[in-house]
Amino acid sequence: MSEPDADALGERADTMIRTLGSISAEPNRLIRQYLTPEHRAAADLIGSWMRAAKLEVSEDALGTVRGHWAGATKKRLLIGSHIDTVIDGGMYDGPFGVVAGILAAEHFAAAGRKLGFGIDVLAFGDEEGVRFPTTLASSMACAGTFDVARLDMTGRDGVTLRDAIKQYGKNPDDIPAAAYARDVAAAYVEVHIEQGPVLEYRSQPLGVVNAIAGQSYLNVEFLGEAGHAGTVPMMLRRDALAGAAEVILLAERLARETKGEVVATVGHLRIPAAASNVIPGNVALIVDIRSGSDKARHQFVDAFKAEIRAVAGRRELGLTITQTRDVATTPCDPALQDGIADAIRAVGGEPLRLASGAGHDGTAMAKLCPIAMMFVRCRGGISHNPAEYASPADMGLAIGALIRFIENAKL
Asked: Do 158 and 263 fall into the same domain?
């Protein structure tokens, strides 16, 4: 079997991603939500590429497109990612993993080579969680962990997930059939742009993910006393926004002190009845805390809560802290990590190991089988943004490494 041409693979991947990126709900920004006409068009395009790669194509009740190349046994290596996007998103987040899987599987199909296991390339539809107040529905169905209570959740457009599935031409009653048997799913591998700047900073095109970070959300609300901006002396104020500002800086300082083990972000701040001449009496914020170590994350959350209470006490503010999310870290399988590292070395890279701060379909698939991820350098670490970009050269190396990994995998 001939050696893969990384340059040619990268150029093909770039063309396919740009073609897929033209499928959008709006002409001037990329919007492709789950179970919409744009999802249908993208799924059909993916299916046509799978057929051209000599894969057997099917689609389950939650819209996951599957391309299958049979192996010598019933065991299958699952390779996948998602084809939905955020609002005004980039072209590479998700679709590159699907395209990489198709091109890698095509390499073996074109040679007519049967492996000791089959390959399934999966194009999931619900990773970003934009349309419905839930996420990972399609990968959870493949893993056999989909909760039917999600079917009654209502999306932004007022349509329930159940009705959206029917409008898409599927039957919600068929969802259980989407699940893989545990003795069939040998492993799940995802190739994804890093969505961060570490690989670029280290001048490395590819990296090995050791874990998908765990995540905690803290909803923090301060209750002070609204007052006139010109008449209340500074020492007599109970300024809820000043307390919130102190907590925002506190989150930054405490996270920096972990030396990269924890990241903390405040991306949402609510000030009811805000006015430029009124001391804010009520302020709420959401703190997003992530780490590749559950122990480090839990320790951070406990220490952070104690510091927030101290801020509230010192400023004489009422305080409510509600933890609305506690998602455990998803470790990647050590043996699969080593296999990806060896494959990266084989294409001339130096495999850097790092955690993924973003969530992925691998979180759901880990409930089914061992998982692994390969990261690809992206320019500026930018993602969820139209400026998102991975070079054809780096993508070609990633596909070449994925092919090497498949060749040497012992599943």
From this structure: no
